[in-house]
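Hi V.,

Quick status before I head out on leave. The structure for the redesign project is tokenized and pasted below; the design run finished overnight.
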């Protein structure tokens, strides 16, 4: 198994940042009491599948989980998204794939569904369509990249139909179906010059809904109609980049965050997928990265959320997001295992090699206003501290009784338990003029996250989430007040209100369906959100400071006023402690002057006696050393599989770990011109960080300047290894003058070279990429190139090598 890049430093930082469990004695929060399990959407298609459908993952150690969380359940689960159902379970949905291949099943499952009570241990729960139930309009197409939402009393699944270059929709009364087709969501043409796939829906606080979509290489957004079945109105391009896809939008404070993946999901061990983000103050943009670069700018982008770190996980990407009961966000995504990156070929797709992409989860931190996984440590392997999926106080009424709850206030006899097919048992109140409370016998913590699923079916009714409850005269209650059409928070101390705060709910708000209400209290400040699905797309939010007399421990529960109030999944947990500092990025130590060059002599390197440089297929035509720069016109040469015609300038690299940096001035004028830095073993085994000009796939002639971190080597799953060329990751924004960096680590335990890239536009602030690995059986050399197409000039100011630290 591979070791994480700079593993000792990262492990130490991870422990300090709370990334790893302190000991095996760390207790898990109590498991929730999910409602009755829903039947699978369809019966398994074969005996082997039937056996697989009943298998759950191996149970994690209490308080921990280990990636992939789908291990032992399904072989692969690409493009996952997750929602917490109204029955108390979490559900995940994935791309059509052969998920039971190791169980002997040769076919695929169409949008497979998994279920979990704790986000760590999963079981198979069915599939959305079968060959018999697949809608006629998209028969013959595989179905990809689902997005799940709960709105207006039902679940809506949006999914990609690549065979028709569009998005489909289906609704269901429960997370596992039965599913009703609602037809294509996008018109033909869609109005976006890109692939009509990889969609995600988002609901804003004014009730307006949006659909984001696009793949290879432009992302677009459009508003949706009232029932969320079609886009309507103007289509806006919000982002562009090489192989950009997989949009997912959340709101946090005043900003909308657009998550996306780029660089290629599905090339096995050569997948350069990464998750990045941009943010905006509008759902339609402009979105910018953490250096202020517009995501529509013709360059690569920064704000990297997640990338490979040198352990077993390659190409992590295509994310969703979920939030645990303590308020901690988690990124849900897929990753490719280095030890088994490819699935077996099967009869339905005999000429296509599918990549194994199981589901992973990891903690998502918000540091300095930007999302990053595990404070920058990247994908996890080995036991990690598990999400909080049990409350300190609260419950789900799954037992069908009010045991463990006490009724106080008005109408204490009005509480009862009802039932529906989705949520299972829930609490309801018969009505009355005064406020009725149903609260836990146990107290909740002082700093907490409380939540409840609430609905109000009577025009004069109100349903509430109450926290810090001591008695009917002392409590803080968050009301969904139908008579006022509003979210209302009220702090009552000594029988007197300390002031209501009223936020109107959208006119489109469906009072008869469940909505999730959350209240987070930290240090006397309360944040409240109302959403349909807990996916960080609240339709209403409030912030308020609580008076000192209202701050402290107390019961949690639900409240009712008037008729038609109902509540489920009511509870509170200790609020998570946010991680506020990133793990350290690679840093340089002492300069190694014997392994660099300032290019301050008139002799072209590699042409005079005693030069530490040497040319492969050179000297390159037109290269000169002038005024402290190596001036090198691009040439019509390649380093691509068998087309190895480019000149390469090489010199020895030091032993041990080191970082090599080149300062480059380069302004390519047309596609496929590139120049930059290599760590080179031979023409078929190297990594590079170059400033490259590359065309968009569907960009109408748009050319991007990108930081291209690529590698060439052999595919490890073929014998002998089949050469694979230039698998890319894309780094930060480019500039005419920029700094390129490759940090080398020798993984002696596993016999591998590990290389991490970084770029800078000022030589001080760096955007760090993920990690590429190569077999460590040959020594790497430092190299420079200026190649692919004539017409541009690269000027290297220096190459400097430092000891890594």
């Amino acid at each position: 198994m591979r070791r994480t890049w700079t593993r000792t430093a990262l492990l130490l930082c991870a422990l300090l940042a709370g990334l790893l469990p302190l000991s095996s004695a760390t207790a898990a929060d109590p498991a929730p009491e999910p409602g009755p399990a829903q039947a699978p959407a369809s019966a398994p298609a074969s005996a082997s599948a039937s056996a697989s459908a009943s298998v759950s993952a191996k149970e994690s150690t209490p308080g921990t989980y280990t990636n992939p969380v789908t291990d032992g359940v399904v072989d692969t689960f690409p493009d996952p998204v997750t929602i917490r159902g109204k029955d108390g379970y979490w559900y995940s949905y994935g791309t059509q794939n052969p998920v039971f291949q190791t169980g002997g099943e040769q076919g695929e499952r169409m949008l497979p569904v998994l279920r979990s009570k704790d986000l760590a241990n999963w079981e198979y729960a069915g599939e959305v369509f079968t060959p018999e139930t697949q809608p006629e309009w998209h028969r013959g197409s595989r179905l990809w990249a689902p997005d799940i939402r709960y709105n207006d009393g039902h679940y809506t699944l949006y999914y990609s139909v690549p065979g028709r270059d569009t998005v489909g929709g289906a609704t269901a009364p429960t997370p596992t179906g039965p599913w009703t087709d609602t037809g294509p969501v996008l018109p033909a043409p869609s109005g976006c010059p890109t692939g009509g796939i990889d969609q995600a829906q988002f609901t804003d606080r004014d009730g307006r809904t949006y659909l984001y979509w696009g793949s290879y290489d432009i992302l677009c957004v459009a508003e949706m109609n009232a029932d969320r079945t079609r886009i309507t109105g103007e289509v806006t391009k919000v982002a562009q980049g090489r192989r950009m896809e997989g949009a997912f939008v959340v709101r946090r404070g005043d900003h909308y965050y657009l998550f996306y993946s780029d660089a290629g999901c599905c090339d096995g061990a050569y997948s350069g997928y990464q998750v990045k983000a941009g943010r905006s103050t509008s759902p339609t943009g402009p979105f910018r990265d953490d250096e202020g670069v517009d995501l529509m700018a013709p360059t690569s982008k920064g704000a990297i959320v997640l990338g490979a770190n040198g352990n077993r996980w390659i190409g992590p990407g295509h994310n969703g997001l979920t939030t645990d009961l303590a308020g901690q966000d988690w990124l849900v995504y897929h990753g490719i295992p280095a030890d088994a990156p490819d699935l077996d070929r099967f009869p339905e797709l005999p000429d296509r090699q599918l990549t194994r992409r199981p589901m992973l989860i990891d903690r998502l931190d918000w540091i300095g206003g930007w999302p990053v996984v595990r404070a920058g440590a990247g994908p996890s392997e080995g036991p990690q501290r598990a999400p909080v999926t049990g409350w300190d106080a609260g419950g789900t009424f799954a037992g069908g009784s009010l045991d463990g709850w006490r009724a106080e206030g008005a109408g204490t006899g009005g509480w009862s338990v009802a039932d529906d097919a989705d949520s299972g048992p829930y609490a309801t109140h018969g009505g009355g003029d005064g406020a009725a409370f149903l609260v836990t016998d146990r107290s909740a913590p002082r700093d907490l996250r409380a939540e409840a699923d609430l609905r109000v079916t009577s025009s004069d009714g109100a349903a509430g989430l109450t926290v810090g409850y001591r008695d009917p005269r002392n409590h803080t209650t968050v009301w969904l007040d139908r008579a006022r059409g509003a979210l209302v928070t009220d702090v009552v101390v000594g029988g007197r209100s300390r002031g209501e705060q009223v936020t109107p709910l959208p006119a489109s708000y469906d009072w008869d369906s469940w909505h999730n209400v959350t209240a987070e209290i930290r240090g006397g400040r309360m944040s409240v959100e109302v959403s349909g699905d807990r996916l960080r797309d609240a339709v209403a939010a409030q912030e308020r400071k609580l008076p000192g007399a209202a701050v402290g421990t107390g019961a949690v529960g639900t409240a009712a006023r008037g008729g038609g109030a109902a509540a489920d999944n009511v509870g509170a947990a200790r609020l998570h402690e946010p991680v506020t500092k990133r793990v350290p990025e690679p840093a340089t130590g002492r300069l190694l002057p014997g392994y660099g060059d300032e290019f301050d002599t008139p002799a072209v390197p590699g042409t005079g006696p005693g030069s530490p440089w040497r040319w492969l297929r050179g000297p390159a035509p037109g290269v000169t050393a002038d005024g402290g720069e190596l001036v090198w016109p691009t040439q019509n040469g390649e380093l691509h599989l068998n087309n190895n015609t480019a000149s390469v300038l090489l010199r020895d690299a030091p032993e041990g770990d080191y970082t090599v940096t080149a300062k480059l001035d380069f302004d390519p004028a047309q596609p496929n011109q590139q120049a930059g830095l290599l760590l080179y073993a031979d023409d078929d085994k190297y990594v590079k960080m170059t400033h490259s000009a590359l065309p968009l796939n569907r960009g109408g002639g748009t050319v991007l300047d990108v930081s291209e971190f690529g590698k060439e080597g052999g595919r490890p799953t073929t014998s002998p290894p089949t050469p694979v060329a230039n698998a890319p990751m894309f780094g930060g924004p480019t500039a005419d003058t920029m700094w390129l960096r490759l940090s080398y680590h020798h993984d002696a335990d596993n016999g591998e070279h590990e290389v991490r890239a970084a770029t800078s536009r000022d030589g001080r602030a760096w955007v760090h990429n993920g990690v590429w690995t190569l077999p460590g059986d040959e020594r790497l050399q430092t190299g420079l190139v200026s190649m692919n197409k004539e017409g541009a000039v690269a000027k290297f100011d220096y190459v400097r090598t430092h000891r890594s630290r």
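Above is the designed sequence. Residues 7-385 form a domain with the Tachylectin-2; Chain A fold (CATH 2.115.10.20).

G. will cover questions while I'm gone.

Best,
W.
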